[in-house]
Amino acid sequence: MGNVGLLYVGAVLLVNGLALLGRVSARSAAPLNLFVGGLQCVTPTVLIIQAGGDANAILAASGVYLFGITYLYVGIAGLAGLDPAGIGWFSLFVAGAAVVYSGISFWRNGDPVFGVIWLAWALLWALFFLVLGLGKQQFTTFTGWTVTLLSLPTCAVPAFLGMTGGMRSDTATGLLSAGIVIVLVALARLLSMKRVTEPVPA
């Protein structure tokens, strides 16, 4: 995924996480989803057209559509007040595809950092499936915190590192990335439990 597009994916994930936490309305989050979704559909299309049949370039661009379609779907649903179940079931497909892209990053591209990042994204979209596709509302707060906490470390941070030439991907940085993701997911769990157990004012 291009670093510029990845930067804005971080922004839209942050806003969508806050929406799940009730801090941002679906309608107010919709324009950003539409903008980033459009960007993430136009960009890979241009890259594929310019690839000249290069299988590696096409593969690299193909995963971007997963995000673009998701955000366009979320933006349209937020403005039109549509049932989010369709987004949820599409998210199941995205989660499965993200696992495949993770494997490609690990074993084909030799990029353990993005292998970990793709697994983190698989988790996020699996949670979207639980909340939006299956209606498991008990996971909404945990999903909101997980999306919010992972949005910048899995998107904006690697985007800035990539644009400034500071991105590294080896076994050590892959393990560090995995550790950060695990800690942030655990923190999301603690924050979601705290909210659930807070006493209701009399």
UniProtKB/TrEMBL annotation:
What are the transmembrane regions? Answer: 6-25, 32-51, 57-80, 87-107, 113-135, 142-161, 173-191
Subcellular location, record wording: Cell membrane
A Pfam family reported for this protein in Swiss-Prot or TrEMBL: AmiS_UreI
Keyword Zinc-finger recorded: no
Note the superkingdom of the native organism: Bacteria
What's its membrane topology?
Multi-pass membrane protein
One GO cellular component assignment for this chain's record is: plasma membrane
Q: Which InterPro entries match?
A: AmiSUreI_transpt, AmiSUreI_transpt_sf
* Keywords, in A-Z order: Cell membrane, Membrane, Transmembrane, Transmembrane helix, Transport
Q: State the similarity comment.
A: Belongs to the AmiS/UreI family.
Protein name per Swiss-Prot or TrEMBL? AmiS/UreI family transporter
Q: Which organism is it from?
A: Actinocrispum wychmicini
Q: What is the lineage of its organism?
A: Bacteria, Bacillati, Actinomycetota, Actinomycetes, Pseudonocardiales
